[in-house]
Recover the amino acids of this structure.
């Protein structure tokens, strides 16, 4: 999701069960992060994960993202770490 007027984008990922566990989501998130930082003029890039799904947080961590807080609905907020 991209909010062009506000210069922000939200990243999200989902894989079928057969595609999980091979690092595909983290690799795709890393590539998307690099591309968006180079091609888009963003003030903020973020992702939200459900605390009940720790695999989502592991994807963010493996892609070089770090925790940035908790949203009002209890989701974990992640942002890319500076390169």
């Amino acid at each position: 999701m991209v909010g062009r007027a506000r210069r922000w984008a939200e990243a999200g990922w989902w894989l079928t069960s057969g595609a999980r566990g091979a690092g595909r989501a983290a690799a795709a998130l890393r590539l998307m992060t690099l591309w968006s930082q180079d091609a888009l003029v963003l003030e903020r890039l973020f992702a939200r994960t459900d605390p009940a799904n720790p695999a989502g947080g592991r994807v963010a961590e493996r892609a070089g993202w770090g925790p940035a807080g908790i949203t009002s609905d209890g989701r974990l907020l992640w942002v890319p770490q500076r390169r």
In short: The first helix runs from residue 24 to 39. The helical segments are 24-39, 54-62. The two ends are 22 Å apart (CA to CA).
